[in-house]
Fold these 2 entries.
Entry 1:
Amino acid sequence: MTTNKPLGIGFFGAGDVSDLHATGVDRCADTQLIGLWNRTAQTGRAKAESFGCCTYDTPQQLLTDPAIDAVSVLTNLETHLEYVTMALEAGKHVLIEKPVGVTIEEIESDTDEDSTVSEPWDFVDSPCAPAAGVWPQWV
């Protein structure tokens, strides 16, 4: 199905790396940064203002926003699996660049036969990395 609606992106996390991701989303004509959640609300509000998007009070609030199609998990490693799982269970596409979990067992727990996780895509080594000036096409 093809639509004229840009893919709505949400961020979990508003640390330094969020600047790179926001630039990447901005450079892609088919995406729009809708909003973000950050565990430190004041930081989240400041980043949302600089990115021109909204902020959410909770991760669940972000995930229930119908305008959000995909989520970038930009939090610290220890929380990756929690937020990736939340987003997948909410039916969102997920971009995670670092390990999904802290241990092999933790990662394997989220990739069983019934998992909806697709094949990983190596964003870091891709020519579409933000340093190349092009954001990957979200599929």
Entry 2:
Amino acid sequence: MTVGLGINPGAVARARVLLRPVEGAREFHSAAEMRAHYSAIARRLYDVRKKWDTPVIKEIVVPGGRNRLVSILYQIAKDANVSVDDLRGPRRIKKLAKTRAKFYYKAMSETACSCMQIAKIINKDHTTVIIMAKRHAIDNGLPPVVRRRSNKDSVPGGDAHYS
């Protein structure tokens, strides 16, 4: 049914419902303000920074864990004559890869930190820590790092795994 100038009152009512302000919605005074607001939300949600630009890490709750990991990292970097930023960065040259592997092995064997915590310190994935620690042990004739699983994580057929 049309009234007056041929405008459908049902369409007008639906448009009013769709266009009414949402309670608690933020109003922006400029497009730049809106873009800044949504980019801040995206940074919080998706953390678009590169991993190696982030600070070392906030805090790991392992008794003596984080400080020990950081001291191992700095000591190995000093012994290899490379910077800690190079070890935490994306470069994959042989010297850095071997130095990282040494750090993974030493961190896993000398601390009670998990592979995830070790990986966070150096901005890598936990599977990289596991694989490179194994490879470092094999290449240098060292004993493999044995990690015991808790009862809730136990696997049928054995209570220890190499990581």
